[in-house]
Amino acid sequence: MLILLAAIWGASYLFIRVASPVLGPLPLMELRTLIAGLLLWAYASFRGQRPALRANWRRFLALGALNGSLPFALIATSELYLPASPAAILNATTPLFTALVAAAWGVERLTRRRITGIAIGLGGVAILVGWSPLPLTGKVLIGIAASLLGALCYGLGGTYAGRAFRDIPPFTMATAQQLGAAAALLPFALIAAPEARITGPAAANLLALALLSTTIAYMIYYPLLKSVGPTRTLSVTFLVPVFGLAWGAIFLHEQVGPGTLIGLLVILSSVGMVTGVKFRMRAAR
Predict the structure, then answer these.
(1) I need a labelling partner for 149 at 20 to 30 A (CA). Which of 47, 98, 159, 175 fits?
(2) H/E/C letters for each residue in the chain?
(3) What tens digit of pLDDT does each residue of 44-89 get?
């Protein structure tokens, strides 16, 4: 199930890469969050667990903005200028930014190991960017900056969620986050509504993004979190960019050079140092 979840989340960069240039980053993410939020709310209601959203709507709106609309819009903007593969790899820096935000917020201590891991992660970003088949034009640099800012927003949103929502059931929080993100994005998405005709591939990738990479992904994620625990579930962080790289190469024929692979390995090594996740081989039973 972890591999399935990573494959679905890795595919989101493929879907965004196809749909964002046609729909625009803001309308695309408005539709993604609105569709997913309504479907998650309907699913919870069907199971008799209708989320209580009204009592905490201000907090949910803040969560949706920090952990939904801002990073989603930044990633979709980055993929106007970047292929799906480097966008997925750059977003794997999220745990590095989370460690910095948690230290600044006084939630966790920034140990020597974590500082070393963050420095190695920055080196991985430099390798990925500097040893890339993409020419370093102004637009490419904007895409890289948008990807890294999206990862920073995830760090801010994750830290805020850990402090402010300890009393909220996780599935309620997931539903509220999507609806809060849709509410925060709505006025901006209306202003930026696409004027060109929406193509069939763009519409199909939007639906795949909303249904598969958001709604179904959350339905898999929270039962996993409960059954195998947060540490094992965190290993999905290491698998998402691998699938993002693979899907981009297979379906969009993106170039995968040595800098891309080395940058990916260096960044994932740094994430392992910062999060403390260790992998051990176990004998088959």
Answers:
(1) 175
(2) CHHHHHHHHHHHHHHHHHHHHHHCHHHHHHHHHHHHHHHHHHHHHHCCCCCCCCCCHHHHHHHHHHHHHHHHHHHHHHCCCCCHHHHHHHHCCHHHHHHHHHHHCCCCCCCHHHHHHHHHHHHHHHHHHHCCCCCCCHHHHHHHHHHHHHHHHHHHHHHHHHHHCCCCCHHHHHHHHHHHHHHHHHHHHHHCCCCCCCCHHHHHHHHHHHHHHHHHHHHHHHHHHHHHCHHHHHCHHHHHHHHHHHHHHHHCCCCCCHHHHHHHHHHHHHHHHHHCCCCCCCCCC
(3) 888 777 777 777 888 899 999 999 999 999 999 999 999 999 999 9
Block residue for tokens 């993100």: 181
What is the pLDDT at residue 241? 96
Whether the predicted model's global pTM rises above the 0.85 cut: yes
pLDDT band at 230 (very low <50, low <70, confident <90, very high): low
- Cβ distance 170 to 222 under 8 Å? yes
- 24: its two tokens: 């625009």
Q: Closest Cα partner for 136 from 77, 82, 197?
A: 82
Task: Give the model's confidence band at 279: pLDDT under 50 very low, under 70 low, under 90 confident, else very high.
Answer: very low
Domain ranges, ordered by start, for the chain: 2-275
- What's the confidence (pLDDT) of residue 285? 37
Mean pLDDT of the chain: 90
Distance of alpha carbon 11 from the chain centroid = 11
pLDDT at 44: 84
Query: What b/e readout covers 178-203, taking b as 16+ CB neighbours within 10 angstroms?
Result: bbbbbbbbeeebeebeeeeeeeeebe
